[in-house]
Amino acid sequence: MSAVAPLAFVYDRCASRGLRARSQLEMRMTGCHAYADGMGWALAGGRWIDRGPDALSTQRPCLSALVDAMRAEAGRREVLCLVHNWGRLATDATHRLMFQRRIVEAGGWTVTTFGETDRRARAALVVGSAGEGR
């Protein structure tokens, strides 16, 4: 294992525009940063937050940008996508697995601030992905 700390890319989504939703988003982001700090992970610069209709779509511009940035770093160090909980990727299990597969294909893995991870199941996430649309 490398002596270089893993690089955590923090992702979230927020469909609502109200003050309460923004406050909850900030609390989740703060929690992710604290979790990464507690784990000794480096934080990737930038914020990847899909908002409004993008937060509900399967075409997530900010998540796509995160995956591209992750792919660029994956050859240099271990990379991961940190979310508050699985619902921050998608509430629909099929869509969540699709997003997790994209992260794995970029060379990373996903973890929640509750310690849930797909790190050990990464190989299973890409099974059957050949030929599927992305």
Low-confidence runs of at least 5 consecutive residues: 128-134
Structural class estimated from helices and strands:
alpha/beta
Radius of gyration: 14 Å
Distance from first to last alpha carbon: 31 Å
Portion of residues in beta strands equals 15-25%
**Pattern of helices and strands:** EHEEHEHEH
Mean pLDDT: 91
Main pleated sheet: 5 strands, parallel
Query: Which oligomeric state applies?
Result: single chain
Helix fraction, binned, reads 25-40%
What is the number of helical segments per DSSP (H or I, 4+ residues)?
A: 4
The counted number of beta strands is 5
Instruction: Write down the overall geometry.
Output: globular
How would you characterize the overall build of this protein?
The protein is an alpha/beta fold. 40% of the residues lie in helices and 18% in strands. The protein contains four helices and five strands; from the N terminus they run E-H-E-E-H-E-H-E-H. The protein has helices at residues 19-39, 61-74, 93-105, 122-126; strands at 7-14, 42-43, 48-51, 79-83, 108-112. Strands 1, 2, 3, 4 and 5 form a five-stranded parallel beta sheet that branches. Strand 1 (7-14), helix 1 (19-39) and strand 2 (42-43) form a beta-alpha-beta unit. The N and C termini lie far apart (31 Å).
